[in-house]
Write a structure and sequence with these properties.
This protein is mainly α and 232 residues long. It contains eleven helices and no strands.
């Protein structure tokens, strides 16, 4: 009789012990806000670039990042807030890399060539950046105008051009009287078009060169055009 009583008791105690061991969940991305936000921005960049602000879906972004709409709204307030954060993030990334070029350490002509070459390469390798800039221009800059950081993000770009241009004028290699903002606009225009219009331009004119050769030729030509524009 004792055995009949004790055996079930021991089994029950064993089961109780097993049930008391609650598995410890591994840390999720919600425990790392910066990583979570970075992941959301990465996916949202593609979503907004491919579909624009109106066509992008928060549900799609949440599913791809394995988060929730509530989490996205917690970090970015709204769909428009996320779109604005994506724009800011893309400019921030570009300017961060640009600041690592150390243009001030190079002679003016070499610094200008490096800057133009970098801008060309960045745009060529980041079609989503071009699409987002085009999308925001279609919005007439409505969302970037709400940004509290976009002006500050782009100040270093103009400052770098102003510095190398001033050195070039002082040494006599660049002509005087040019506006650093206008120089920046010229660089942007020449490097932007190659990506923004690549599909229509290629279909209409069908370049005889291979894609790689055409890109290399265009890159060299853009650098030379900007350089000739500044040379004394």
């Amino acid at each position: 009789m004792n055995q009949a009583v004790h055996l079930p008791l021991k089994k029950a105690q064993k089961n109780k012990t097993v049930k008391s061991k609650v598995p410890v969940r591994a840390p999720t991305r919600t425990n790392d806000p910066e990583r979570t936000m970075a992941g959301i921005l990465e996916v949202a960049t593609v979503e907004f670039a491919e579909k624009g602000l109106d066509g992008a879906r928060i549900d799609e972004i949440a599913a791809a990042t394995k988060t929730s709409k509530r989490m996205i709204y917690y970090y970015f307030s709204s769909k428009e807030g996320l779109y604005r954060a994506v724009l800011e993030d893309m400019y921030r990334r570009m300017r961060t890399i640009e600041s690592g070029l150390h243009l001030a350490d190079l002679p003016p002509v070499e610094a200008l060539e490096k800057l133009v070459g970098f801008t060309f390469d960045h745009h060529h390798s980041n079609e989503n950046f071009i699409r987002l800039v085009m999308s925001e221009n279609m919005q007439r800059g409505a969302y970037l105008s709400q940004s509290k950081s976009i002006q500050g993000l782009n100040v270093p770009a103009i400052a770098a051009i102003r510095e190398l241009y001033s050195r070039g004028v002082a040494s006599g290699v660049f002509r005087a009287g040019l506006d650093p903002v206008d120089i920046h606009a010229s660089i942007s225009a020449l490097t932007f078009f190659n990506v923004s219009n690549r599909h229509t331009f290629g279909l209409i004119f069908k370049p005889e060169q291979t894609a790689a050769d055409a890109i290399s030729t265009r890159r060299n030509n853009v650098i030379e055009m900007v350089l000739r524009f500044l040379l004394a």
